[in-house]
């Protein structure tokens, strides 16, 4: 996470919203869209940080910006925890908004293949300000990530999103041998990928052990090569750790469950590249307004 210095102003540092122009309000509050190829930051290549126009929260780094040719600034990654995803009013696209103040930014798309991260945040220039690199400084990281695979990612995503302290959950694929896999490829059971979720969370509110415990309690860690009626290696139970500390926590929890008599088959594996799934897989149950068919909470700790 980046902290913006005095150029952003004391009011922004205190999370106070600035007064918007009519055009800014049309886009950021009323969820409008600026005309393509007209935005200030479309063809803009300076080094620095893009921040929310309304509250000053850091959103994107210049190194994650790329030219997609779509007519709006494009980024293949956000600052962890800075952007909130939700189902658009059209019921199909995924809207992105500032996680701090809720200002509309644009939409996020996956599966297009523009970059290795396979993600495109399509953002209105009018929703952002830019702070040059020389006027920003690194601050302590205030978010952390975890990756879990426990059957169909729709259900794991849905259950994880409810945990206090979780900022975002993205469904995707990990652990296989094919770059930028598609859902159809993963379903052949030949790529080696697992359906998984990447959880971004605030460590001042929750911690990795709490999330790992929840993971073991929202799926059946004793079922091998599947989850509920979903059978196949892509539905396996697996924790992909990002740090040695995460590995130690996962192994400790598995040992505790086995001591209680559970025949846990969950694998603990170093994380490789996490590939976000296609846009229609994100926030699936939120969009459908239904509950998971093969995930439910069962207290085990």
Short description:
The protein contains 7 helices and 19 strands. It has helices spanning 10-13, 22-28, 153-160, 183-187, 208-218, 244-259, 284-288; strands at 2-4, 48-52, 58-61, 65-66, 74-75, 83-87, 94-98, 104-110, 119-123, 128-132, 136-138, 144-150, 166-174, 194-201, 226-227, 230-231, 237-241, 267-270, 275-276.
Could you please describe the fold and organization of this structure?
The chain is an alpha+beta fold. The chain has seven helices and 19 strands. The strands form five sheets. A six-stranded antiparallel beta sheet has the order 4-5-9-8-7-6, with no helix packed on it. Strands 18-17-12-14-13-19 form a six-stranded mixed beta sheet, with helices on one face. A hairpin with a 6-residue loop joins strand 6 and strand 7. Helix 5 packs across helix 6. The longest helix is centred in the C-terminal third of the chain and has 16 residues.
**Number of DSSP strand runs:** 19
Order of helices and strands: EHHEEEEEEEEEEEHEHEHEEEHEEH
Strand content: 25-35%
Radius of gyration: 20 Å
Assign an overall shape. elongated
So how many helices? 7
Strand order of the largest sheet: 4-5-9-8-7-6
Task: Let me know the average pLDDT.
Answer: 88
Low-pLDDT parts are 1-16, 137-141
Structural class: alpha+beta
Biggest sheet details:
6 strands, antiparallel
- Helicity range of the residues? 10-25%
Distance between the termini: 33 Å
């Amino acid at each position: 996470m980046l902290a913006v210095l005095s150029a952003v102003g004391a009011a922004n540092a205190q999370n106070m919203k600035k007064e918007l122009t009519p055009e800014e309000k049309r886009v950021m509050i009323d969820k409008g869209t600026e005309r393509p190829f007209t935005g200030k930051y479309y063809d803009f290549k300076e080094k620095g940080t893009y921040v929310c126009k309304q509250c000053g929260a850091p959103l994107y780094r210049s190194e994650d910006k790329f030219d997609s040719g779509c007519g709006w600034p494009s980024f293949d990654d956000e600052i962890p925890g800075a952007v909130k995803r939700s189902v658009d009013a059209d019921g199909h696209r995924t809207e992105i908004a500032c996680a701090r103040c809720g200002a509309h930014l644009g939409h996020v798309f996956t599966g297009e293949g523009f970059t290795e991260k396979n993600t495109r945040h399509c953002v209105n220039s009018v929703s952002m300000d830019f702070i040059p690199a020389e006027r920003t400084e690194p601050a302590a990281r205030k978010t952390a990530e975890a990756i879990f695979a426990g059957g169909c990612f729709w259900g794991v995503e849905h259950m994880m999103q409810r945990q206090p302290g979780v900022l975002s959950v993205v469904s995707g694929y990990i652990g296989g041998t094919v770059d930028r896999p598609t859902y159809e490829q993963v379903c052949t059971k030949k790529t080696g990928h697992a359906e998984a979720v990447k959880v971004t969370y605030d460590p001042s509110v929750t911690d990795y052990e709490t999330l790992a415990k929840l993971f073991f309690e929202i799926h059946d860690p004793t079922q091998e090569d599947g989850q509920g009626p979903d059978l196949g290696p892509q539905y396996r139970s697996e924790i992909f750790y990002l740090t040695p500390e995460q590995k130690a926590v996962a192994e400790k929890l598995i040992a505790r469950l086995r001591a209680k008599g559970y025949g846990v088959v969950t694998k603990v594996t170093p994380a490789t590249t996490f590939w976000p799934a296609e846009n229609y897989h994100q926030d699936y149950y939120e969009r459908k307004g239904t509950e998971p068919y093969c995930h439910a909470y069962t207290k085990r700790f």
